[in-house]
Amino acid sequence: MDINALSQVNAIRTPSVNKLQTPAEVAKGFSSFLSDAINEVNQAQVESAILSDKFAAKEIEDIHQVTAAGQKSSIMLQMTLQVRNKVIESYQEIMRMSI
Description:
By secondary structure, the protein is mainly α. It has helices at about 5, 25-55, 65-95.
């Protein structure tokens, strides 16, 4: 193995790990994360409804697929509600703090 060949390897590029983000950038990233998560929950709910309708119309005979989609969307919705409750609880706790 040629040791000189190792010196030709480019440095690994990491996406802005050392760069400090402004509060506006962090807020924008967090809001886009929440928006994406809510869209995923909505998509799971829509898929579950579509599968339920297809099962009712006897287009799908596999009840396991319908049940799994329903449980997945239910769990995602419950998780979203719990995260929302924790965020509201944290906000209320911060507002109660004295400066």
